[in-house]
């Protein structure tokens, strides 16, 4: 955990904490593993502290007792379609799965929301009819496609 923050999200894993943290930190700029705590030499990590785009996280190898659910997710706001596509594709690779409305599960079972910042502009627009069209378009998507949101918003 960083010196600036007393709070970090802790994700529970069954033996894959370090693998998950390494993967996650490879995805976003300003991300890094900070510490890997092992209970003994040649033992798997017990706790890995890391940051994703500056946000502190912990990964705990706690065992098989608890599984990830959609009740908690990591939400990433993307700047454009290229970033959306890159993150989406990386996270569903190797056993992840697509969800609806920008949601997915990665190969570790962690839920993510990959949300282009344009979505907020479209569904939060003052033109409520256009915003509703964009919302309805989003509800029919897995990965959010900005050009389809724009087309719905503009009624094209």
The rough form would be described as elongated
SS content category: alpha/beta
Q: Distance between termini?
A: 47 Å
| Secondary structure: number of strands | 8
Question: Strand order across the biggest sheet?
Answer: 1-4-3-2
Instruction: Provide mean pLDDT, rounded.
Output: 95
Spans where pLDDT lies below 50 across 5 or more residues: none
Biggest sheet record: 4 strands, mixed
In sequence order, what are the helices and strands, one letter per element? EHEEEEHEEEHHH
**β content, as a range?**
25-35%
Rg, alpha carbons: 18 Å
Number of helices: 5
> How much helix, percentage-wise, in residues?
25-40%
Overall description:
By secondary structure, the chain is of the alpha/beta class. Helix content is 31%, strand content 26%. Helix 3 packs parallel to helix 5 and helix 4 packs antiparallel against helix 5 (146-153). 26% of the residues are buried. The model has no long low-confidence stretch (mean pLDDT 95).
